[in-house]
Amino acid sequence: MMDDQHPAYLENRYNLEIMPGRDYFIRENHWLPRKLGIRLIAFGKTLYCAGDLPVIPDHEFLHIVQFRRFGVPRVIAHYLFHLTRNYLTSFDFAQAYRNIPFEREARYYDQLQQEKNSQPR
Fold first, then answer.
1. Where are the alpha helices (DSSP H) in 19-71?
2. Whose CA is closest to 81, among 59, 66, 68, 97?
3. N or C: which end of the chain has fewer CB within 10 A?
4. pLDDT < 70 positions in the chain
5. Kind and range of the H or E element at 41?
6. In what order do the strands lie in the sheet with 40-43?
């Protein structure tokens, strides 16, 4: 869970209302995620997919709003700084990546959405 231990943390930090075609775009069958060996990558206002993607994980939507709030240069700087710092302490690239604050925040958002969707209506 994030620092303040409260789900409203993300709602207060970000505008989570986003619409396809206005706030983000999807590029299916793109070479970039295939080259990186992943299914999806969010960059700026675009989600790049390795193939056809029927469902987009909530995690990726938070990355879109992170880019919207902070801008591409700051997000890239954030990732590079924290990835380098984390790697120099763990020498484990996967762990260093998982511990980047924006990645932790996105996993937290994913967890909140899963809990929200599993509650009876």
1. 31-36, 58-70
2. 97
3. C
4. 1-7, 121
5. strand 40-43
6. 25-27, 46-49, 40-43
